[in-house]
Design goal:
106 residues; mainly alpha; 5 helices; extended
Length: 106
């Protein structure tokens, strides 16, 4: 793929903006551990954002669940989704607590 064929494609613009952010040091997305599932990675990022905002997680199911997904699920699927979400939340919360204990200044 050469620059001559598509000098102004949207993907190149996004890549240039990302490169600019990285060079300025303005990119600070939370880096999730490699040994977790994609759903746990989403929860990890949401919890890091809530922590950065100073918000408290009072009701993790309501705060972390995808409302659109819950509307389209049957009763059994909804129960399965909530149970899996709760298990993922507990494992991610424990992961965050352990990392906070290991890195108290972070």
């Amino acid at each position: 793929m050469s620059n001559v064929k598509h000098p102004k494609c949207p993907m190149r613009d996004l890549a240039a903006k990302a490169k600019e952010r990285l060079s300025k040091g303005e990119y600070s997305a939370p880096v999730a551990p490699a040994n977790i599932t994609p759903r746990q990675r989403e929860i990890y990022i949401k919890l890091c954002e809530l922590k950065k905002q100073g918000a408290e997680v009072v009701n993790p199911i309501a705060q972390l669940a995808d409302e659109n997904a819950l509307k389209n699920l049957s009763h059994e699927e909804r129960q399965r989704y909530i149970i899996q979400l709760a298990a993922d939340y507990v494992s991610v919360r424990n992961l965050l607590e352990n990392s906070a204990k290991q890195n108290p200044g972070a």
